[in-house]
Amino acid sequence: MLIYLRVLKESFNFALNALRNNKLRTFLSLVGVTIGIFSIIAVLAAVDSLKQEIEGSISGLDNSTIIIMRFNFGPTDIPRWKWQQFPDVTYDEYQYIDRNTPNIEAATFTLNVPNESIKYENNQVDNVPIGAVTDSYYDIEALKLGEGRFFNGSESNSGSMVVVLGDEIANQLFGGAANAIGKEVRIYGRKFNVIGVLEKEGAGLFGNSKDTSIWMPVNVVRRIYGDNNKKTFPQIVVKPKKGVDEAEFIAVLSQKLRIKRGLKPDEISNFFVNQMQGFADFIDEITGSMNIIGLIISGFSLLVGGFGIANIMFVSVKERTNLIGIQKSLGAKNKFILFQFLFEAVILAVIGGLIGLFLVFIVSILASQFTGDFEFVLSPWNMFIGTAISAAIGLISGILPAISASKLDPVEAIRTGM
């Protein structure tokens, strides 16, 4: 074990000497590895950051959550012209499902409506996203209140004129969440009482954030828009109880809605039952494809870097032929010479990889600064991958030069090197 540590130390010294004595040659040889590692880790980090941001934006919804609507999350065998004619889900269907489907932990009915302006005295915020939901949305989405409360079941059913604000909306209208509770604002030309303000969340990847949104009882919006308005996009969101067999639950849920709609056994379901798990799998599939494409592109840089390392090692063998002959004449075994050059190749490649990782680290800091609340993630796992790939490139690139050095005849090596 001691001899390998000595070999490693000598190889490290030789690698440093190569960097010092042949700066330009070494730089040109390592630049391929540096660019390759930078490309790979930058792609992995960017994809991880994107995935984390998307998952964070839907983190309030459990993967078991089910969304019923007339559109499907992914591909479907039903022709486009047919599913475009599907009817929207209704509030009555939501109530029927909530009352008659077993093993439901919570269910909510939501409408997606055009953005509106919200006004308080002389302060006005335009283009505000409105969440028209029932009271149970608070539990399904796992909302967190900074001040006040969310509207209750009685207020939801009666369509009380109450509203819950995002943190940024409260700041723009009242100068802070604490000042908002109990105040009256105007939305749709009507007065609404502010009963709650959510905790600050921060901006999302695409600019969407709960901080800039408001929530009101869905029955208020139903009175304004009506039940047959195509500007709305109704959905029934259902969260099953924990431990329930999801396939069986979905089958029962679908059957209940089929019964409510009076569909015959030979008729297809004119609605889609979408799972959040399916959406999560879709995200994984997209990010996985992005990783593969990035790795293929970065692989070309690593290939160039590998040839560069091999080239510098062959030159190193030639320059140190005399030294190799002396080492062998003094009893150094072929294995000692082999490991010496192999370690040197690995060390050179790892140095190039570490430079690439450092560049990714700098870029990640700059990217996080310029993109605001979007966090560019450079995980320890990605750093480990970068270092491991560098070492592998050095090992592969250095194996042939190391073998050629270990097989040199000591007498010929000394004579050739003189």
TrEMBL record:
<feature type="domain" description="ABC3 transporter permease C-terminal">
    <location>
        <begin position="296"/>
        <end position="410"/>
    </location>
</feature>
<dbReference type="Pfam" id="PF12704">
    <property type="entry name" value="MacB_PCD"/>
</dbReference>
<keyword id="KW-0812">Transmembrane</keyword>
<dbReference type="Pfam" id="PF02687">
    <property type="entry name" value="FtsX"/>
</dbReference>
<feature type="transmembrane region" description="Helical">
    <location>
        <begin position="27"/>
        <end position="47"/>
    </location>
</feature>
<dbReference type="GO" id="GO:0022857">
    <property type="term" value="F:transmembrane transporter activity"/>
</dbReference>
<dbReference type="GO" id="GO:0005886">
    <property type="term" value="C:plasma membrane"/>
</dbReference>
<dbReference type="InterPro" id="IPR003838">
    <property type="entry name" value="ABC3_permease_C"/>
</dbReference>
<keyword id="KW-1133">Transmembrane helix</keyword>
<feature type="transmembrane region" description="Helical">
    <location>
        <begin position="292"/>
        <end position="315"/>
    </location>
</feature>
<feature type="transmembrane region" description="Helical">
    <location>
        <begin position="383"/>
        <end position="405"/>
    </location>
</feature>
<keyword id="KW-0472">Membrane</keyword>
<protein>
    <submittedName>
        <fullName>FtsX-like permease family protein</fullName>
    </submittedName>
</protein>
<keyword id="KW-1003">Cell membrane</keyword>
<feature type="domain" description="MacB-like periplasmic core">
    <location>
        <begin position="26"/>
        <end position="253"/>
    </location>
</feature>
<dbReference type="InterPro" id="IPR025857">
    <property type="entry name" value="MacB_PCD"/>
</dbReference>
<feature type="transmembrane region" description="Helical">
    <location>
        <begin position="336"/>
        <end position="363"/>
    </location>
</feature>
<dbReference type="InterPro" id="IPR050250">
    <property type="entry name" value="Macrolide_Exporter_MacB"/>
</dbReference>
